[in-house]
Amino acid sequence: MTFALVWFIIKLNQHPIMKLLNSGNTKTRKGEKLGYITYGMHLAPEKLSGYNVCANASKGCARACLNTAGRGAMSNVQEARIAKTRLFFKDRQKFLDQLWKETEAGIKSALRKSMTPCFRLNLTSDLPWHLIKNAGETILQAFDSVQFYDYTPDPSRFSSFLAGELPLNYHLTFSRKEDNQNVCDLLMADGGNIAAVFRNALPSKWQGRKVVDGDETDLRFLDPTGVIVGLVEKGKAKKDDTGFVISA
User: Fold this and answer.
1) Measured distance CA(129)–CA(134) in Å, rounded
2) pLDDT-based confidence at residue 68 (cuts at 50, 70, 90)
3) Burial level of 26, CB count in 10 A (0-12/13-18/19+)?
4) What confidence category does residue 15 fall into, taking pLDDT thresholds of 50, 70 and 90?
5) For residue 189, is it within any domain?
6) Which domain holds residue 120?
7) Distance between CA 90 and CA 121 in Å, rounded?
8) 49: in domain
9) What total number of domains does the chain contain?
10) How confident is the model at residue 7 (pLDDT cuts 50, 70, 90)?
11) Strands (E), 113-203
């Protein structure tokens, strides 16, 4: 066997080294004016990679997903997100070890800049990070002094959050879809914050609740309780006809 063939076989069986976290997109960077740096992770949404990372996706949210917004429209960015997602499923240990290292590095980098680090691991996915363990503990437990947050359409996970059953450093906002309004009503009654996408502009109130501007910053853990987090339609959502986007 030639050296070249051996090298090719080794490379074929290795997962590429890639960066898992980024320190902001257009929206998450808005939090920097308040002293926060958000480190987020983009995976390939729904089943784009061949693996489903959005178990509760509806037709409307799949169509309106911001996966292809901004730099996401570039083919190399899409390829990287697919590669990261496949790495998560094919070599979970390697993925988690790298995620732990990047999280620690992100914390140190933010503190050197006199900023507060926070993490949103589900920018374009909906994985249950409160259950995924590395060396016996979740990332929320391993880094319990820093804030993690996500949007989620998973009613079970969100109910656990409202009941105080999730780590205190993990904040969730529930995502309204065209097919879960009844669930939203129940969760709102329990005091949960609901994120909803509106056509053209935000109303001052919706469903009897105050609407706060969710596009002003991405720092959902700073929101008051019992509000609607309003988001104005963007990208593919402008063509939504499923009811995912609300015409208020």
Assistant:
1) 11
2) low
3) exposed
4) very low
5) yes
6) 14-246
7) 19
8) yes
9) 1
10) very low
11) 116-120, 133-134, 137-138, 147-152, 170-175, 194-198
